[in-house]
Write a structure and sequence with these properties.
heterodimer, A: mainly alpha, 8 helices, 0% strand, B: 79% helix
Chain lengths: 194, 172
């Protein structure tokens, strides 16, 4: 999938500038954007490292687990097809907790474990279960409270108030989760009625 | 409103550290261990950042998207959406690194505190890369029929992106 996008971006870019006689710009772009990538990397690296450090404390002290326990009752309502004591709910809770704290990469292992637990109770193994779909909607809409990379880049580019986008971001991400969950709920309901 | 945005990180950090301390874990060692993991994560994403910054810059510098979307610009002007944000809104559900690279470009050209800079920030934070996540999670357990998941995921993205536009206009 990403291969297609990559191919599309590069080929369209080069072919289009070939036809519009814009080749100087493209040559400049190719030769200088390695630096851009390095600058981008260097500006987000310290925050990622700092934040994973802080979150390791949250993980080892059991704070993340406690937080996950807090959202678990809510989850059993969202996943009626999953038994209440199923391990999947715990993994889903941890995945959401990690996502909220802006730890996308730490969230992935929990998410993969949740999927394999859900697969165990899935009746048709090659087909997505309703619980899986609900989980992925929740995951991709991703409620993020601390968008670490965004903050890091804003700081690197000299923002006067880097964190001012947190609250608007929380509201937007909340709406997208809610929208996705509602649509998912209605689709499930309609299929059950049939 | 602004205060909430400002205090959440410091409050969160002090809470985490005190909680860890009260549970008698070695907070400093835990931090170092996590930081080391963060360093490894950063090194692992570096190749994809190089790849995406490369492709995105060629694409944006060719002006293709602006010529192509130029027809839309009168309409976008009316609803106060800058043309330069469109590539990012379109690529956000597909690749997080691609939209990150575009956001970086927007910050370089317009600054993070400009209207479009704030818009890009909210947009980047508000959804995840739906298509990538679906592909990764479903392929990990061998599910081939993904049913209505892509539709619902993209719908959630659309809601998020729309709200991001609205809320940036309201807030700033």
């Amino acid at each position: 999938m990403v291969s297609y996008i990559w191919l599309f971006l590069i080929s369209i870019g080069i072919i289009f500038s070939f036809f519009t006689g814009n080749l100087d710009t493209i040559n400049d772009s190719i030769l200088t954007n390695g630096n851009k990538a390095l600058e981008l990397m260097l500006s987000i690296l310290p925050i990622i490292v700092l934040w994973t450090g802080i979150m390791k404390i949250a993980e080892e002290s059991g704070l993340l687990k406690r937080f996950a326990k807090l959202v678990e009752p809510l989850l059993s309502k969202l996943f009626p097809s999953v038994p209440k004591d199923n391990k999947a709910l715990g993994y889903i809770a941890s995945n959401i907790a990690a996502n909220m704290m802006g730890l996308g990469s730490a969230a992935t292992p929990f998410g993969l474990k949740a999927m394999s637990e859900l697969q165990k109770i899935n009746s048709k193994k090659n087909t997505a279960s309703t619980a899986m779909i609900t989980f992925l909607v929740l995951n991709t809409a991703g409620v993020t409270i601390v968008p670490t990379t965004v903050l890091a880049l804003r700081i690197a580019h000299g923002s006067a108030n880097p964190s001012e986008i947190i609250l608007p971001g929380v509201i937007a991400t909340f709406c997208s989760s809610l929208g996705g969950l509602l649509l998912d709920y209605f689709i499930r309901k309609r299929r059950n009625n049939k | 409103m602004n205060t909430f945005s400002k205090i959440i990180i410091p409050v969160f950090i002090i809470f985490v550290i005190f909680y860890g301390f009260s549970k008698k874990i070695n907070i400093y060692d835990a931090f170092l261990e996590g930081a080391k993991e963060g360093l490894i994560i950063s090194f692992n994403i570096f190749p994809s950042i190089i790849a995406m910054v490369f492709a995105i810059n060629i694409f944006l510098d060719s002006n293709f998207i602006y010529k192509f979307l130029g027809v839309l610009s009168p309409l976008l002007n009316v609803i106060n959406i800058p043309l330069e944000i469109m590539p990012m809104a379109l690529l956000r559900p597909i690749s997080g690194t691609a939209s990150l690279a575009i956001m970086n470009d927007i910050f370089i050209n317009f600054g993070p505190d400009s209207y479009i800079g704030r818009l890009a920030s909210v947009l980047q934070g508000c959804t995840d890369t739906t298509i990538y996540v679906l592909a990764l999670y479903f392929s990990s357990i061998g599910v081939k029929k993904i049913r209505y998941s892509l539709g619902v995921g993209l719908f959630a993205d659309l809601v998020g992106i729309t709200v991001a536009f609205l809320i940036t206009m309201l807030f700033f």
